[in-house]
Amino acid sequence: MPIQPGGTLTPRKHSAFKVMAVKPFWITCAALLLAPVAQAAPYAQQTSFGVPVAAVQAAQAQTGVAGTWQALPALQSGRLESAPITVAPFNELIPSWNVLGAADAAFTLEIRVRRPTGQWTPYFNFGVWRAAGKRLSASGPQTADGMVNTDTLTLPYRSTAFQYRAAVAAGQQVTLLSFNTSDTALKLREQGRAGQLQTWNKTLTVPGLSQMIYPGGGEVWCSPTSVSMLLGFWGKPVRVPDAARATYDSAYDGFGNWPFNTAYAATQGMQAFVTRLGSLRDAEAFLQRGVPLALSVRFRPGELPGAPLSWSNGHLMVLIGFDAQGNPVVNDPAAKNDAGVRRTYPRAVFERLWLNHAGGMTYVITPRS
């Protein structure tokens, strides 16, 4: 639940404090039983369809998260459909899409996975995206096949293959489809890796924007505010209220739907996707190439020294660099004004809060060319 001004609580879900569902018992058991088998596999993979930005592809090659790129399938009768895609074992999948044109037209994406038996599940729906107009996610109940929780497909087993299909309206152009698959039992495996010293004592000039200067709503706008900062860095400034309006998920009743945020960035001339990284060393690979990132953390009272919030169930901020000791320097939109957003947090603490909360969830946003 988010903290409202004055410290009161509200049951509504919002992006600044994204409510993460407690994992069902069967998911926890599956992770514990299968963890030894998965140790040889990577924590996460990013499988993308489109034309990669050179800096992003170079950064991915220097991380522990494999990034593969291939051409989008041919559009046939308003549909894009993939062949089965084989990946390392995963129990969570987060999709991203970049869709241009026809702002009020609906775009839908569905995904199915291959069960350990070799059979395929039914398709899981990720809701309806529109650049303008009503957009909504599609959460469903937990089943033996899995469940969608707003922006993440969670499985009660590990799969090694998925397949997607998308319905593309007339006047729409899909430029990117990207899928992060991860084995959540391995999310802390790379924690504490030595940093890349050549990236330390350097910061990028990302405009600092506070979500808190917008009374009556801004306190829950951490995700669109972070996107606004990244767009401003790339010379595409947008007003934070406009970004919030363009990322609102009427089913989730909030602004923190991860692929909705990156899909909005794509409408502003960017290539944007959601990924998961395994360590701050992975993040350094992007910063080294001039690419700031939006990261999500969760912390209890007293866990994040110097933070403008006392606690959060999920809060996004922009990583802009590292100090001389390798501590992350961020633009934290929860500061009370624009001048106060720049903060430096202890490296080990920040990394743990980032990996523990959402498995190193990150927005990657860059110009398409």
Distance between the termini: 39 Å
CATH architecture of the largest domain: Alpha-Beta Complex
Structural domain tally: 2
| Estimated structural class | alpha+beta
What is the CA-based Rg, rounded?
19 Å
Name the poorly predicted regions. 1-39
What average pLDDT do the residues reach?
90
Question: Outline, from the CA principal axes?
Answer: globular
Alpha plus pi helix count: 7
> Could you give me the name of the CATH homologous superfamily of the largest domain?
Cysteine proteinases
What is the number of beta strands? 16
Q: What is the N-to-C succession of helices and strands?
A: HEHEEEEEEEEEHHHEHEEEEHE
Quote the CATH topology of the largest domain. Answer: Cathepsin B, Chain A
Helical content class? 10-25%
Features of the shown structure:
7-stranded antiparallel sheet, 19% helix, alpha+beta, globular, 369 residues, Cathepsin B, Chain A, 7 helices, 9-stranded mixed sheet
Description of the molecule:
The protein is an alpha+beta fold and 369 residues long. It folds into 2 domains: 25-186; 197-367, Alpha-Beta Complex (Cathepsin B, Chain A), CATH 3.90.70.10. The chain is built from 7 helices and 16 strands. It has helices at 25-38, 54-60, 222-233, 240-247, 258-267, 280-287, 347-358, and strands at 44-50, 66-70, 79-81, 85-100, 107-113, 124-129, 147-149, 152-167, 173-182, 202-203, 270-276, 293-299, 312-322, 328-331, 342-344, 361-367. The strands form 2 sheets. Strands 1, 2, 3, 4, 5, 6, 7, 8 and 9 form a 9-stranded mixed β-sheet that branches. Strands 10, 11, 12, 13, 14, 15 and 16 form a 7-stranded antiparallel β-sheet that branches. Strand 7 and strand 8 (152-167) form a beta hairpin. Helix 3 (222-233) crosses helix 4 (240-247). The radius of gyration is 19 Å and the shape is globular.
